[in-house]
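Hi W., the iron/sulfur cluster complex you wanted:
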Amino acid sequence: MSMPEPPLALLAELTHRCPLQCPYCSNPLALEGVEGELSTEEWCRILDEAAALGAYQVHFSGGEPALRKDLPKLVRHASAAGLYTNLITSGIPLNGEKIDALAEAGLEHVQLSLQDTLPEEADRVAKMPGAHAKKLEIARCVREAGLALTINCVFHRQNLERLDAMIELAVALGAGRLEIAHVQYYGWATENRQALLPSRDQIEKANALIADAEARLKGVLLFDHVPPDYYARRPKACMGGWGRQFLNVSPSGKALPCHAAETIPDLRFDNVRERSLADIWVKSDAFRRFRGTGWMPEPCGSCDRREIDWGGCRCQALMLTGDAAKADPVCELSPDHGRILQMVENGAGQETPPFRYRRKAN
Ligand code: SF4
Ligand code: SF4
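Structure:
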């Protein structure tokens, strides 16, 4: 067995609990409960193992990771282990004092999600009155604490018209980076596809606006933008390739090659309570199954992009073709690409139904 390169990052999903209920949340439909969450000691061991394995950074994520009271302790531990520390947060449970404590513990970067620039719209998506105002306050606290700030916004048909306003807001908040995400149609988002799927016209306008803003704001704001799947001609390199860069650990300790990997029924996932991270990364069935290019059928097997996009997303292939080992249907070369075209045609021009919200986890 050839040894894989070490992972770039550990995605530490500390909890699935979250005060918000975004209808495109990437957490699984079956949210893990608080009673099964890993303990502080278990997370500290995993952080040590990730550093020993050669990971460079840890993203504390969720749900809402700041709901864990031990977050400062985990940040301190990760920092002492030599990991670059990033907090991916809704901001809701934080305040100035807590952010200062996290900075003092060694936190280096905060990625704060905003849902929209219009407060009432942002609060409607998050399903929490006052959420947007709180987030703006948190952005200010993050900058005052001297931490690097990325604003993340998931765009969809109901907020794309305010992309330019979001760019201005990110600059005004002192963010160094704006992550322009598009909805990934897994989990909760598939329940809301009709309410979220943008039109081709919206996407083309957005692409032009981003290109213009990138040139105009060079040196001020970095843009992180992956065009939305359904309007692309080739797929994204999902997770930078299966089992190549990221190692996701769920709140109860399941080690996953990506956050949606559990939707693939015939994969067996190891738990960090039972096996070391290094053992899982190198040998586990789930990580090896789609690693590299050996598993690829045609058209990917002989394609010259196979080590660029790694055949796209396995979970999307499963969802749209029933077979996780097929080419991602987003690819125009896939024999299943018609499904994407059909979905866009069926969805984009239709009226927008109300959201089906993510349920709160306990
Ligand atoms: S997407 Fe929304 S609901 Fe899901 S974890 Fe993030 S803030 Fe919470
Ligand atoms: S055929 Fe496969 S490897 Fe080639 S571009 Fe399409 S998805 Fe990527």
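Residues 234-235, 299-300, 303, 305-306, 309, 311-312, 327-328, 331, 333 surround iron/sulfur cluster (ligand 2) (CB under 6 Å).

W.
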